[in-house]
């Protein structure tokens, strides 16, 4: 099964680049940039990765991201992930970044984007991996701050395909950002939002009705509302599901109880993704493997999920077709 998954052509659509920061690089950058870390060793960092909620993870994730300072740091981070993609036969990626995590610390928006984009361009040329970049607003911050970030992004619009919404979900519903997302749509950005990860199905409805999302990130709590599931099926509105993340953050108690296969069999356009692989103990192939081992996903299921990853992407119909041909 491992070999089968390895050989599957795959796209990854839900991946926070800051969530690919492995402890080794975190330590190296902390030393270079003279940033104090609350850990004595790499071993201690890994031991701290024991989460009981989204927030317990986010606290460490934002602390970890503080070691990223120079353009080359963002380049090195992104390049390390793209090399992993090459190894795992991931052919196309749509990467999230959180500009406010960095601009809040005085790092210029352009430093972040230029570092990431240089790695994406190198990967296209040297590894044949295609990519898009999506910036996310932090939903625990205000709508005004999201507006400022949107404004800062405009000189780099040619590098950014879409806008997303992440961070602490409960208490920060999509409705808080309705106007800024309207502005983002007017700028031509695609729209995605984390919804229904910890928040209930009303967060998913709001993302659909108020933000007019092109995709839902996570969305696993859609199954609380049969009308919503029917809507997702009818519209083929994709969910970017992250199985290992859901179990690590206790959004799902055990992998054997994950609903991704049930949703797949019902006809929802679900995809498999790794979210923050450095923190959750596995990259994309490990997520597919967990579905096979712990949920009984068949080869047929895994092929359907891999095909969905291209269908749900922001690639053109022609490009999607080119990738889907690889399955025939
Ligand atoms: N799983 C997740 N949910 C919300 N915000 C995030 N930022 C990084 N990973 C996230
Ligand atoms: Zn996420």
From TrEMBL:
Binding-site residues for substrate, renumbered to this chain: 276
Binding-site list for Zn(2+): 14, 16, 194, 275
Q: Give start and end of each Adenosine deaminase domain.
A: 9-324
Spell out the GO cellular component terms annotated for this protein, sorted alphabetically and separated by semicolons: cytosol
Give the record's cofactor note, including how many are bound.
Binds 1 zinc ion per subunit.
Q: Which CDD domains would you find in this protein's record?
A: ADA
Which transformation does this protein catalyse, written as a reaction?
adenine + H2O + H(+) = hypoxanthine + NH4(+)
Active site, UniProt feature:
197
Q: Name one GO biological process term.
A: adenine catabolic process
Which controlled-vocabulary keywords does the entry list? Hydrolase, Metal-binding, Nucleotide metabolism, Zinc
A single MF term (Gene Ontology) = adenine deaminase activity
Q: What is its EC number?
A: 3.5.4.2
Site annotation (Important for catalytic activity): which residues? 218
As cofactor, the record names: Zn(2+)
Q: Which HAMAP family match?
A: Adenine_deaminase
**Family per record:** Belongs to the metallo-dependent hydrolases superfamily. Adenosine and AMP deaminases family. Adenine deaminase type 2 subfamily.
Cross-referenced PANTHER family: ADENINE DEAMINASE
Q: What role does it play?
A: Catalyzes the hydrolytic deamination of adenine to hypoxanthine. Plays an important role in the purine salvage pathway and in nitrogen catabolism.
- Protein name listed in UniProt: Adenine deaminase
């Amino acid at each position: 099964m491992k070999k089968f998954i390895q050989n599957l052509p795959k796209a990854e659509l839900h991946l926070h680049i800051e969530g690919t920061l492995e402890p080794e690089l975190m330590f190296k950058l902390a030393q270079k940039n003279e940033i104090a870390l609350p850990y004595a060793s790499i071993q201690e960092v890994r031991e701290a990765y024991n989460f009981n909620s989204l927030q317990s993870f986010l606290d460490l994730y934002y602390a970890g991201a503080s070691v990223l300072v120079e353009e080359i740091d963002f380049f090195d981070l992104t390049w390390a992930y793209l090399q992993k993609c090459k190894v795992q036969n991931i052919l196309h990626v749509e990467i999230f970044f959180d500009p406010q995590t960095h601009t809040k610390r005085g790092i210029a928006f352009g430093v972040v984007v230029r570092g990431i984009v240089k790695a994406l361009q190198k990967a296209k040329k040297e590894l044949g991996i295609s990519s898009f970049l999506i910036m996310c607003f932090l939903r625990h911050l205000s709508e005004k701050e999201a507006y400022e970030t949107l404004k800062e992004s405009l000189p780099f619009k040619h590098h950014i395909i879409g806008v997303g919404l992440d961070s602490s979900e409960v208490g920060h519903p999509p409705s808080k950002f309705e106007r800024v997302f309207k502005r983002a749509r007017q700028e031509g950005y695609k729209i995605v939002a984390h919804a229904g990860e910890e928040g209930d199905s009303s967060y998913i409805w709001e993302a659909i009705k108020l933000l007019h999302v092109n995709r839902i990130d996570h969305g696993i709590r859609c199954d609380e509302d049969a009308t919503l599931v029917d809507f997702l099926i009818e519209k083929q509105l994709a969910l970017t599901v992250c199985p290992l993340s859901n179990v690590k953050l206790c959004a799902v108690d055990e992998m054997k109880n994950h609903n991704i296969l049930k949703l797949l069999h019902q006809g929802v356009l679900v995809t498999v993704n790794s979210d923050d692989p450095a923190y959750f103990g596995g990259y994309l192939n490990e997520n597919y493997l967990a579905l096979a081992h712990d949920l009984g996903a068949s080869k047929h299921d895994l092929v359907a999920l891999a095909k969905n990853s291209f269908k749900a992407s922001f690639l053109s119909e022609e490009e999607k077709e080119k990738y889907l041909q690889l399955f025939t």
